[in-house]
Write a structure and sequence with these properties.
homotetramer; alpha/beta; Dihydrodipicolinate Reductase, domain 2; 9-stranded mixed β-sheet; 12 helices
Amino acid sequence: MGMVGGGPGAFIGGVHRAASRLDGKIELVCGSFCTDPEANKTMADELFIPVEKCYDTYMEMFAKEATLPEGERMDFVAVTTPNSTHFPIAMAALEHGFHVLCEKPMTLSLDEALKLRAKVQETGLLFALMHNYSAYPMVRQMRKMIADGVLGDLRKIVATYDLGWLAAPNAGKQATWRVKSKMSGAAACVGDIGTHAEQLIEFTTGLKITELSADLATFVEGRELDDDATIMLRFDKGAKGVIELSEVACGEENQFKLRVYGSEGCLEWSQQEPENLLLKTNDTAMKTLRRGWAELDESVKGLLRLPAGHPEGFIEAFANIYTDFAAAIAAKMENRPYAGLFPNEETGVRGMNFIETVVASSKQNGAWLPLKQL
Amino acid sequence: MGMVGGGPGAFIGGVHRAASRLDGKIELVCGSFCTDPEANKTMADELFIPVEKCYDTYMEMFAKEATLPEGERMDFVAVTTPNSTHFPIAMAALEHGFHVLCEKPMTLSLDEALKLRAKVQETGLLFALMHNYSAYPMVRQMRKMIADGVLGDLRKIVATYDLGWLAAPNAGKQATWRVKSKMSGAAACVGDIGTHAEQLIEFTTGLKITELSADLATFVEGRELDDDATIMLRFDKGAKGVIELSEVACGEENQFKLRVYGSEGCLEWSQQEPENLLLKTNDTAMKTLRRGWAELDESVKGLLRLPAGHPEGFIEAFANIYTDFAAAIAAKMENRPYAGLFPNEETGVRGMNFIETVVASSKQNGAWLPLKQL
Amino acid sequence: MGMVGGGPGAFIGGVHRAASRLDGKIELVCGSFCTDPEANKTMADELFIPVEKCYDTYMEMFAKEATLPEGERMDFVAVTTPNSTHFPIAMAALEHGFHVLCEKPMTLSLDEALKLRAKVQETGLLFALMHNYSAYPMVRQMRKMIADGVLGDLRKIVATYDLGWLAAPNAGKQATWRVKSKMSGAAACVGDIGTHAEQLIEFTTGLKITELSADLATFVEGRELDDDATIMLRFDKGAKGVIELSEVACGEENQFKLRVYGSEGCLEWSQQEPENLLLKTNDTAMKTLRRGWAELDESVKGLLRLPAGHPEGFIEAFANIYTDFAAAIAAKMENRPYAGLFPNEETGVRGMNFIETVVASSKQNGAWLPLKQL
Amino acid sequence: MGMVGGGPGAFIGGVHRAASRLDGKIELVCGSFCTDPEANKTMADELFIPVEKCYDTYMEMFAKEATLPEGERMDFVAVTTPNSTHFPIAMAALEHGFHVLCEKPMTLSLDEALKLRAKVQETGLLFALMHNYSAYPMVRQMRKMIADGVLGDLRKIVATYDLGWLAAPNAGKQATWRVKSKMSGAAACVGDIGTHAEQLIEFTTGLKITELSADLATFVEGRELDDDATIMLRFDKGAKGVIELSEVACGEENQFKLRVYGSEGCLEWSQQEPENLLLKTNDTAMKTLRRGWAELDESVKGLLRLPAGHPEGFIEAFANIYTDFAAAIAAKMENRPYAGLFPNEETGVRGMNFIETVVASSKQNGAWLPLKQL
C-alpha cells in the first residue's frame, strides 16, 4: 500500500501503519507523508522504504506509481490526512486507478461525498472508510445476534460518546483544526465522534435513521464549531433513540457506549471494555459474552488472533478493516466474489448526510428533520 | 406515625414501614391500609397495632386521631397510595393538622400540586416528598462537591434511567394502574421515573431546568400513556443536558445513572452501586469516592450507619428521609430551627411542572418549551 | 429481646438493634449495655425502654427477667460484648432459661466452646452465632446450587479477606482489644475474619476442612497477636483450598471474596457487591445471578425485601439471622418443627477448633495438622 | 530475526511473529518452523519468506545463517517450541553466535538453566525470556511506584492465576504435552503459569522470595504432573505472600491478578483489564491509574502506542519485549550502552530455581524450603 498523511508528529497515520502490519499481509511501499519535502524524506529511514518512494506530493505519487507494473506499484492508498483533503486525494487516487482506504468522515460536505461515491461507482474500484469500531469482534457478534432476532423487535437505541480532550480552550494542535469549518466541515464533535455513533448504530441494528432532532453546543468560547451535542432519533420500523455526544466531557478518555433494547432483551457494548458484550433479558441472568465464548458466531471467530483472556483491543479492530479490505482487493484481482464487511462509500455518504441533517436541525432549534434519500 | 395505603400485597408501603423502623425513633401507631375493611383489619396483627387503630377510611383516621391528645395520636401521616389519591389524602391530613410524608409524584396534576403547596404554606405544617435517591450518602456528597465548585462551571448533565418491568404487555397489577391517566396522571414513565431524574439533577447540581424538548413513546400496544421517553434539557447558566428514560428496557432492573460534567471535572453516580461516586478530571487519576472516604463532608458522615465495606443500600436512603423529616417535626414541636434536606412541597410542584411541560412538548413534536415560573 | 453490650460508643450493638428492628417482629425490652451504670442508664432514653429495664449487670438482668411471666420478660438475649465475655454471659443466660444469640467467635477458647455447646444441648435452648454473611441471599443461592451439583465435584476453594483497618500501629479503641489474647483469644485476625471465611466455605460447599497448614504474621510491631495470615486447606472428598487474610491490607474496606471451583464450573461471590453471584463454566458465557433472577431458589426468594435493582446490603443479611432465629424460637414455643439455617453452637465449636488448629500449625512452622473430631 | 517453532497449528509462534511486526522494526527472514519438512515449507508462502530460508532443522539454519554476511543473516533467533527443546536450541544458537529470545520457562531443569546462563555469559550474547506480562505499561508503572516507595514497607503480596483450560481430561493437543514431564519439566501448572506469577512479583516489588511452602495437586486423573497449586511465600525484608494457581479453574480465561500491600498503601493489577492499576490507601479515595494518567512515569509513557481510551492489550506488551530486545541488540552492534528491562537468563534461572523448590516442598508435604543461592 501507499500512504498520504501520517508524517512526523501525526497520530492516526502511525496507527494505520501498525494495523496494516499486524497480520503480515500488507506492505507499505511508498508514501507522501507530509507537505514539507524535507520532513517527508525523513520518513524513508524510519519506515524502511527507499527514499525515492517518499514522494513530495500525492499527485506525484499517484502519477509515478500508476506507471509501474503490477507487483511493483502500490495496490491501494491509505488517506490519513485532515478531513478537508480527503476528497481531492481520494478523487485523484481513483482517477489514477488505485483503490482507496480513507479516514472518516469521508469528505468536508455531503456534496463532495456524493461526487466521490459516483467516482467509486464509475471506476469500479474499492473504497473503504475507517470506522474501525465496527470491526471489533464483539460488535460483529452484536450485529449477528440482532440480525438473528435475539432481541425481538427493536425499540430503543442509546449511544453515549464522551471525551474530555477539548474541555480546555487550548487543547493542542490536533484540537485546533477539529473545530474549524474549513478543515473539519460543518460540524466538529458531530463529525469526529457523532459519525462513529451513527455508523455503529446502523451497522449493528440494521435500522436506518429516518429523522432526527439535534441540539448542538459550543461550551468553550471562541470555537467556530460544536464541541457537544444531543441528538434524538427516530428509525424505520418504529424504533427510537438518542445519541449523546461531548468532547468537553472532562475526565473521559474515549467513552463510547451503545445499548440496544428490543422486545425480548438488550445488548450492551462499551468501547473501553471491547471484549465484553452484555446480554440482558427480563427472565434470565445477565450474560457476559466474551471472545472466548463457545457459541460465538463462526464469522466472529475468524476475527480472533489470541485466545480469550489475552486482551485484544483497538489495533486489532483497526487491522480487521485492513485485512478485510486487502482480501477484497485480492479477490477483485483474481475475479473471485468477496463479501467484505468494511465500511465503504455508502457509509461515507450516510455519515455526511447525518452530519448535515444534524447541523440543520440544530439551527432550526431542534426541528425534526428527515435524512435525505440518497 | 400513621399510614394510608400499604395494605396486603402492596409494595411501597412495606418499604416505608421498614425504613421508618430502622433507626428506632418512629413508631407506627395507626393506619388505614386498604379500602377493604376486612383486609385492613388483618394488618393489625401483622403490625402489632391495636385493631381499633386500623381505621376503615383515612377520613375516619384523621378525624379520630385529631381528637386524641399529643403523645397518643400520630404525629404525621405517610401517604403510600397510588398517585391519584395523594392529593385528597394529603389535603385532608393537612386540614386535620397532621404533617404529611407523601410518595411521589405529589399529585395527579400541576393544578393539584399548586393547591397542595398553598395548603401546606397556609397551615404551616411540614410536608415531605419521598424522593429517596436524594438521600443516598454519596448523592449528598455529590451535591456538596458541586456546590463547592469542584467541577467548575457546569456544562452537561446526562441522566439515564432504565427498567425492564413494563417490557411485556402484561406486567402485573402494579403495572396496570401506572399506564392509566386516571390513576397515574398525564404521564406514566415520566411520572414514575422521570421525576426522579429531574429531582436528582436539580438537587445535586443546584441548576434549574429552563426549557426542554421531549419525545415520548408507547412501545407496548394498548397502553394509554408513555412507557419510554427522551428529554433534552437546557438549564440556567448555560448548561445543557438529556434525560433518557425507559420502562420497556428489557433486562434492566433499576438502572438509574447520573453524570455531571463541568469545566474542571465530572462526577458520576449509579443507583445500583450507590456507594461509589466517581470523580474524573482530565489531569488526575479517576477517584472512587466511597462511604469510607476520610474526606467525606461532615454532613454526609452523619448519614452513615455502618463502616465502609459493609454495604448499605436503598432502605438506608429511604430511612434518611424519614429521620430527617422526624427531626424536622421534633424541632418544630420544640420551636427549634431546623434545616432539613428532605424534598418538600416545592419539589412536588417542580415535579408536576416538569411532567406537564414534557407532555406538552412531546405533543408539539418536541418543541422547546419553558418550564413555568411558579 | 434483651441485650448485653452495645453501650455508648460501641459499634456492633447498634447494628444488632437496627437489624432486629427491620422486620418489625422483634422488640428490644431490656438490656445491660455497659459496665458503667451511669452510661448504661443513658441508653434507656435513646432506646425508648424504661430505665428500670436498663440493668446494671447481666446477672441482675437474667435473674430479674427470669422471674417475669412470659410475654413480659425477654424471650432471648443478644450478646454483643468483646470475645472474652461471650462465654460467661451465654452460660449465665442459658442457666436462667434464655435463648442466646451471640457475636462470633463464640468463646475465647475451644475448651469454653465445648462447654457452652454442652450447656446448650443440656438445656434444650436455642443458640445462634452471628455469622451474618451466611444469610446474604446470593450466598444462600450459592449454597443451594453447589448442593444441587451445579459445579460438579468440588476441587478448589479460594477465599481472600482483606481489611486495612489495622495497618497503622494506632488504629483506635476497637483495634486495641482485638490484638490482645486476654480479650480476643488465641488469634486476632484469624478469630475476627478467618472464622468468617472458614464458616462461609463450609456453609456454602458442605465440605469439611480436614487439615490445614498456616503461616501467621504480625506486621505491626508491639502486637501480641496476628494481624495477617495465609492458611492452606485440605477438605474431605479431595478438594483443596486457601484462605488469605489480612487486617493490615492498606486501602481495603471489608474485601471478602469467595470462589469455589468444581469439575463443571465456578461460583464467585464478593461481600462488597453482595447482590451479584457469578457463575462461570468453560462452555457458556458468564452469568451474573442477581436478586432479581427468575430462577432463584424459592428459599432464597423468601429472604428478599426489595425488588431487584433496589440495593440491599449488610443490614438485611444481619436481619435474616435475627428473623430466622426469632422464627425458630416461636416454633419452639408452639412446639412446631422448624429448620433454621442460622449458625449455631456447632458452628461456634467448629470456629474455635479452626482457630486453635491454625495457631498450632503456625507455631510448628506450617505443619499440616488435622482439625479435631469433636 | 529467525524463528524455531511456530509451524502450522502452533499458537505462540504466531503471536511472536505478530508482536515482532507491530512496530515495523523487526523482519522475519528465516525459520525452521516444524520438524516435518513438507509442513515447514508451507510456511514460506504464508510468511512471504523465500522457500530456501525455511530450513529443515534448526541446526541447519544456524549453520547456514552463520555463514552469511551481517545484514543478510538473521540477527537473533526466537525459540517458540515446547519447553523440552528450549535448551538444546538456545545452546546451539548461542554457539553459532546468535542472540536468543526464548519462550518461558527457559529450560526443562535448573541444571540446564545454569548451563545456559553460563553459555550466555561466556559468549557475551544477549538472551531474552518472554515474560510479556512484565512489559504491560501499568505493570511497569507499578514497579516504578513501588521502587519510589509509594507503598512504604512491603508486607503482603497476593497473586492468583486461574485458568479453566485443563479442567476436562481431554483438553486438546496443547494440553497434552503440558502435563508430561518429558516435554514440560518437573511441573506443569507451576511451570506454565506459576513462573509468570513468581517473575511478576519479583519484577514489580524488587523483593526476592527466600523460602516457600507448596501444595501441588493433580485434580484430573491420569495426569503425570500438577494442574493446580498453592504456594506460601516468605521474602527478604520480612514480607510474606501467597501464590494461588490453577489450570482446572473452570470458567476462567487467563485470570492473573496481583496485589501488593505495604505499610502505606496497595497496588492492584489484573491481566484481563491490563490498562487499570488501582492505588488504595487507608486515608484517600481509591485511584484508578490508567495509560492516560498525566503523572505516568516517563519511562512508561515511552511504551504507549495509542492514546488513553483506545484499548491496548496483550500483543502490545509482547511487542514491548521484542522492541526492547531489538534495541539492546542494535546498541550492542553499535557499542552503545543500553539498559533493557526485558527478562533475561537470570530471570530464567530464577524461574527454574522456583519450580524445583516448589516441587521439592510439595513432595515434603509443604516443608518450608529456601530458594537456592545461584
